[in-house]
Each structure stands twice: as C-alpha cells, then as structure tokens.
Amino acid sequence: MSDRRTTAKAFHDADGVEDWRVLFSGAHAYFRAGSFAQGARFVTVIADIAQAVGHFPDVDLRPDGVTVRTASGEYGALSDRDVELARRISAEARTLQVKSDPSQVQVVGIAVAQDAGSDVGPFWAAALGYKSLGADEDVVDRHRRNPHVSFQRLRPPKPGRGRTHIDVSVPADQAEARVAAALAAGGPPGRRFARARLVDARLAGEPRRRHRGMAGLRGRRGGLSQWS
Prior knowledge:
By secondary structure, the protein is of the alpha+beta class. It is built from six helices and 14 strands. The longest helix has 18 residues, at 36-53. The two termini are 26 Å apart. The relative contact order is 0.16.
C-alpha cells in the first residue's frame, strides 16, 4: 500500500467507499449507532483496522453515532491509504450492521478577508490557540476539533477594512436543500447569498488548494460550499 496522493474524484470513484464524502480537511463518514455501547464497540473495530493499515483517522463517538475523518498530510490531502482505510471501515460496518448516513457529515470554516499588506493569521492563531500552517495559510485546531480559519485578500483593496464569512462544506447531494432551508429561514436572496462559482484546483496538502469540483455559495453573512 502506497502513500501516493490521490484526488477527491479518484477517492469517490474507488470501490467500497460509498459511505464517505470528501469535504474540507479530508474524507468523512458518519455511522449511526443504536447505543453508546454499540458505537464504542465499532470504534474498537476502527482502531484495529487503523493499526493494520498503519493509518490513523480522527474518530468522534457520540451516543447516537460515530463520525470518522481520514486524511494524509498536514491538513486534508488524500492518499491511497485513506481509500484503503475507508474501504475496510465500511466493510466492517456492513458486517456489524452499523448503517452509514452521509447526509450527517459537514465541515465548518471561518474565512477572513484581509487587506493587502495585512497578516491577521498570527492573531487568530494566538486567540484560538491554533496552529498556523505557514505564512498566509490557514490556522487550524491542533486537535482538529473546531473550524479552521482561512485567509484571502480583499479585492478591490480597502485599507483598514476586513470581512469575515462562514464556509460550510457539505456533500454535493445535500447542498441545494441546505441553501433552500437557509433561504426559507430568512437568508438574503439573490447574489448576496446564492451566487455560485466553481473552483478548479488540484488536491494538495495546502488547505487553500481545495479539491477539484468544489462549488461555493457565499455571501457577506454566510456561505455554503458543496463538493462533487
């Protein structure tokens, strides 16, 4: 088994990973559990698989289910090991009759627009106790529990000004329903909220180089990102 990097599309095209969705920061799956004890037993199985593969995911156990995230590299890149780990976890889930629910996975990020010549990354890293991934790169929770913070330049420049919005990364088949629900709950219609744009970028280790096929829906007060 190799650590060769792969793309979000290649991951989704692989056999046996239908339970998983590639969002910000890696591939994610949610498995429903009938009880906390059943979820704990499933986590033990995941630990055995991870040991066998030599690749260790983030696992979150709650009374109603288990969320799993797998990635390679600093934050979000994928490799062949992620495909193999996901495939084995899903196979064991089927054996144990633990059902997946891809609609329950999402990742939230905070996007900060800053003026040219400004670098507010060190402030956010210090205020949140986060780790910086480098100059002008994201700052992230050291334990990968909370939203990452990304940075972009204001265009056109606005000296002394800044802007912040929320990115919500959800499975592609959930995006339109989520937008509709947000609009129905009072979200501003039109371009301020529902302007879609495609981002074509290679899958790489840097968080700013998002996966191929991402469409973002963003506005001044909020945003939604979908992945295909």
